[in-house]
């Protein structure tokens, strides 16, 4: 396969089909898990709430929501240059993340069908939502004369194995942070309609309600398995996943601040708001949350931002590859040190779990 660059400098596998972004520690990942362990879980401690959530899923409130209207029927050549590249990247990353969720939930629904009917149907209906989101995003890419080959992604991506409790931590936070990302952009553009450069953002209000319902499902699942929340190991793992999700978002978004600027948003302020809200929401189920108001929190993330800028500069230099490794090593070590120091910032214990109020 010979990849080519299109006229906007975007690499294509074949005409009109974008080459998937290179997998890095900051790109969306595909997951698999121990399906048998989930099948054996006793959900009776919180079965009533899970059944209520299943009824919500069956309603399929967004059945008719993701329908393109006449506002899409125009040329989008005015979104050009760096803004176009960043916007295509946003659509690709979002589509890949949604498609990753679809694959995981679909497989869980299939594997649990005869073992745990309630969970199987919940996962199947969540996969329906994720497929709808991914398809809508991929269709948006077609407005920029591109698409993702999702079948190629299915076969070519590496799958990361997580134990079920780690899947619950990670996917809960992914859905929770997705809610706050989408609703924050939507509310900003609702107040500043001139900043709405493309009509997909008008769909974000209903869209994020899918994320909200999915987050509620994983919250209910964790409450049905209190052993994954109530010991010292759980506190350490919750801190780890909170930090991983927050750091990944912050480093990605600050690097792509031009995309948010095109929407009239400051990437850093946007991320700080989303992190604060997600962190507060996690406190309704996690035993600990991060102290994101500690001045060290963003100072250390900014050090990582600066390190990553230097790493990219080295990648783009003409220095021989074997010498680049020696140039990069101190920066990698600095990032690891800063993240480790962030992990050991004293967390906030959450003693009184309450229902989430948005």
Task: Write out key terms for the chains shown.
358 residues, two-stranded parallel ribbon, three-stranded antiparallel sheet, mainly alpha
Shape: globular
What is the averaged pLDDT score?
91
* Structural class by sheet pairing and helices: mainly alpha
Q: Summarize the amount of helix as a percent range.
A: 55-70%
Residue share in β-strands: 5-15%
Number of strands: 7
Cα radius of gyration in angstroms: 21 Å
Identify low-pLDDT runs.
352-358
- Strand order, main sheet: write it out: 1-2-3
Which H/E pattern describes the elements?
A: EEEEHHHHHEHHHHHEHHE
- Biggest β-sheet: count, sense, barrel? 3 strands, antiparallel
What's the N-to-C terminus distance? 49 Å
Number of helices: 12
Written description of the protein model:
- It is a single chain.
- The protein has 358 residues and is mainly α.
- Helix content is 62%, strand content 5%.
- The strands form three sheets. The protein has a three-stranded antiparallel β-sheet with strand order 1-2-3, with no helix packed on it. A two-stranded parallel ribbon has the order 4-5.
- Strand 2 and strand 3 (17-18) form a beta hairpin.
- Helix 4 (117-142) packs antiparallel against helix 7 and helix 6 crosses helix 10 (267-282).
């Amino acid at each position: 396969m010979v990849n080519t660059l299109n006229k906007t400098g975007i690499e294509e596998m074949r005409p009109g089909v974008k080459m998937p972004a290179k997998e890095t520690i900051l790109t969306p990942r595909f997951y698999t898990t121990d399906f048998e362990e989930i099948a054996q879980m006793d959900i009776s401690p919180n079965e009533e709430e899970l059944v209520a959530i299943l009824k919500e899923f069956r309603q399929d409130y967004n059945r008719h929501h993701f329908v393109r209207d006449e506002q899409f029927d125009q040329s989008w050549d005015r979104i050009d240059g760096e803004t176009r590249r960043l916007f295509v990247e946003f659509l690709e990353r979002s589509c890949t993340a949604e498609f990753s969720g679809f694959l995981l939930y679909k497989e869980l629904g299939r594997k649990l069908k005869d073992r745990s009917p309630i969970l199987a149907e919940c996962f199947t209906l969540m996969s329906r939502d994720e497929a709808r989101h991914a398809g809508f995003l991929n269709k948006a890419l077609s407005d920029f004369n591109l698409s993702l080959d999702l079948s190629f992604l299915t076969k070519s991506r590496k799958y990361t194995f997580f134990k079920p409790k780690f899947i619950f931590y990670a996917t809960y936070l992914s859905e929770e942070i997705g809610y706050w990302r989408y609703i924050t952009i939507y509310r900003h553009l609702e107040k500043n309609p001139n900043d709405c450069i493309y009509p997909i953002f008008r769909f974000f209000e209903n869209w994020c309600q899918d994320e909200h319902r999915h987050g509620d499902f994983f919250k209910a699942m964790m409450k049905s398995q209190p052993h994954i929340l109530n010991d010292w190991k759980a506190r350490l793992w919750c801190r780890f996943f909170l930090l991983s999700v927050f750091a990944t978002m912050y480093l990605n978004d600050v690097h792509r601040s031009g995309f948010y600027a095109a929407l009239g948003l400051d990437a850093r302020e946007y991320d700080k708001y989303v992190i604060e809200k997600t962190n507060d929401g996690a406190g309704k189920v996690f035993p600990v949350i991060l102290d994101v108001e500690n001045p060290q929190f963003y100072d250390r993330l900014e050090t990582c931002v600066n390190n990553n800028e230097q790493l990219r500069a080295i990648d783009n230099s003409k220095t021989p590859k074997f010498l680049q490794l020696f140039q990069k090593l101190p920066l990698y070590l600095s990032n690891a040190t800063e993240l480790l120091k962030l992990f050991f910032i004293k967390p906030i214990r959450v003693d009184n779990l309450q229902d989430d109020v948005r």
